[in-house]
Amino acid sequence: MKITQYKSRNGSDQRQIDTLRSLGLRRIGHVVEIDDTPQSRGMVHRVRHLVRVVEEKR
Question: Which residues have a Cβ under 8 Å from the Cβ of 20 and sit 6 or more positions away?
């Protein structure tokens, strides 16, 4: 999965900020590629209003 942060984390609570950091996202426009696991899906769900997800077919 490729995840892009497209909105600012300003105004987010600490749990959402920590989740973004755990995903490896640092700034708007930053793209990271992570494995598609239930844990990563849960983290993405928590910050779904701040990120965009592109799933790659394998």
Answer: 5, 9, 12, 47, 50, 51
